[in-house]
Design brief:
This protein is α+β, with helices and mostly antiparallel strands. It is built from two helices and six strands.
Amino acid sequence: MATAETVELNAPHAPKEASITAFTTILPELKSSLIHARKSHDKHEPEYFSSVSSLSDAQLSTFSEDDLKLVRVGTSAYGLHLFGKVRLPETSGGYIHFRAFVGGNVAGDATDNKTVNLHCIHTEETEDKAGGKKYRAIFTEGDALEWFDT
C-alpha cells in the first residue's frame, strides 16, 4: 500500500495537462462523492461541512476543471498518486482536497490507456487545545496540500 513514507510527492504546483485530464475523468464521481459525504457526515458529525451548510447540493458541486488550483503527484510501482486542491466557487474561499490514483503505464505525462480512480475526499479530525475534537472537510487557500488517507 502506498503511504506518505513510501511515495514522495512533488512540490505543489498549478495543474498541467495530464492532471487536468485525470481530474476531468473523475469530476462527475468527485461531485457525487462530495454530496454523499456531506449527507453522511451531517447525520453523525455536521461540523465537517458546517462552513457550507447554507449551500444546496447543486451550489456545493458547481466546480469545474477551471477550479482545480493546485496539485501534487507522486509515483509508485503501481502508478501515479494525484492530490488536488479544488476551489468551491459558491463559497467564500472554500476548497476541497481530493486524492486520485492513475494506474497503468506511468511512463510519460499523458493519461491515455490509464485508469483514473477517485480514492477519497479529504476529511480532517484534529484535537483542540481543550482536548475536544474539531472536524472539517472544507479547507482554505492557505491550507497545505499534504498526503492524506481519508
